[in-house]
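Lab manual, section 2.4: Encoding a predicted structure.

Procedure: take the sequence of the chain (360 residues), apply the prediction step described in section 2.3, and record the output as structure tokens. A sample record is shown.
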Amino acid sequence: MDVLDTQNSTIVRSENLDGTLDPIDTAGLATPVADTPTTQASWLGSSWRMSALRGAMRVLSRVSPERAAALFDRIWFSAPRTKPRPDANACLAHGEALAFRVHGRRVEAWSWGRAPTVLLVHGWGGHAGQMHALVEPLLARGLRVVAFDAPAHGRSDPSRLGGHRVSMLEIADALRVVAAGVGPLAGVVAHSGGCTATALALRDGWTGPGRIAFVAPFALPSAAIEPFGRAIGASPAVTARFRASVEARFARPWTDFDMPGLARLRALPPLLVVHDRGDRDVPFFHGRAVAQAWPDAQLVGTDGLGHRRLLRDPSVVSDIARFMSQGHSAARPATPADARSELDRDYASAGVCRRTPRPG
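Recorded output:
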């Protein structure tokens, strides 16, 4: 295996001499999640607002744990807003605009080229335009590209929770609806929380594509709860209350959202994982954990690209396009999405969705 150190760059990539990527060697790579430092709440920032939030959460944790847990819930399920870059907007402007209905709400999507189709799934707080650098390389390899804005993200309508609040279950539902409308899929390329939603859809019975590429996957949500709670100033008791309330609401354990356990439940397609070792939003051990557990996985580690620049790096984009083009014959039939999913029933029974949020 030849290790390439790109001149004038901090990127270090491992690649075979024939240009193929090396499958992950799992020996000696296991890292105990509990002993690994995480910065899962880094997207919340360190401004005066964050300091005020920590102070308020510490007070509420003492005087009103129930209200503190409710605030924890609101923060956890609120997606940050990301302003698209000009190059992202330009790419979307050249795509064919599509629209889907997910739980009665509009989900915006864009399409370029002709089948076989690769679906791009952005991450938490992101938007379809963040994946724009992948469009031309995939088109050049004879693939159609489709990207969409998840509920409560980008140009899509708010979710059933209203405003910027949304759950991975609802994003997974949107993924299935879009996939059924544009499939069959040759592949899926997902980033960060989009990887979590993709894995959740697979866990819940979605047929899935012939190939998957995960970029900086948020693979272990259950391991992020305690670090997140500490970052926002919640007490251990409040964090435990939040954890239990979410499990009760969705009628499923937090481990259902963890990606490594998926391999024990069903057959999975070939996987490429790309993750930066210095990622401050989703630490590298997440990508390593899912690659270790997946039966046919390749892991590419980078340095100096962080959490989002991976999506625009020419070497990473080239790796993903090459990997996807190898799976033309592996496309699987799409399956219709069930608009009345388990999330509908859970929220209907809880009375959460009695008011329809106003688009905005």
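Check your result against the sample. Residues 139 and 290 are 28 Å apart (CA to CA).
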